[in-house]
């Protein structure tokens, strides 16, 4: 009986972990994804609220290709209360194929979360990203601001994907004064 419970717990754990690297049913990751063009720094223009970025401004994500084929991830944001940068360092791996914008990212050892690029501007200037469910959303840009046309396209794509854009948070990307 104990072995059956252990196997059941293992199956349940594997099922739960697989769900964290899945994707929402109505969203497909971009294909013909070029990781080399995606590398570099992206600025967070909009997101849905979640605790790990709450209160931060000037949020950036920097991606670099590692020698082992994984992607190093450095997320950072300015905490105006503490007057310092908050930073998280992680690693990303492709879920299926390197030409599909579906990765799994870990900031905590063996635990991975899904990173699904579901819209990417042809010139790689703007990206829309979600996770395994639609509780997570990020609008990323290569520049700290978007043009009105870029923002319109992003909102249209997010709406089409089923996100409630009225709940988006737009963190400040104004320069931090040197102290």
UniProtKB/TrEMBL annotation:
The Lipocalin/cytosolic fatty-acid binding domain, residue ranges: 33-172
Domain of life according to the entry: Bacteria
Pfam families (UniProt xref): Lipocalin_2
Main location: membrane
InterPro entries linked: Calycin, Lipocalin_ApoD, Lipocalin_bac, Lipocalin_Blc-like_dom, Lipocalin_CS, Lipocln_cytosolic_FA-bd_dom
Keywords: Cell outer membrane, Lipid-binding, Lipoprotein, Membrane
Keyword check for Lipoprotein: yes
Transmembrane helix found in the keyword field: no
Location within or outside the cell: Cell outer membrane
Task of the protein: Involved in the storage or transport of lipids necessary for membrane maintenance under stressful conditions. Displays a binding preference for lysophospholipids.
Quaternary organization: Homodimer.
Entries under PANTHER family matching the protein: APOLIPOPROTEIN D
UniProt similarity note: Belongs to the calycin superfamily. Lipocalin family.
UniProt-recorded name of the protein: Outer membrane lipoprotein Blc
Source organism of the structure: Vibrio porteresiae DSM 19223
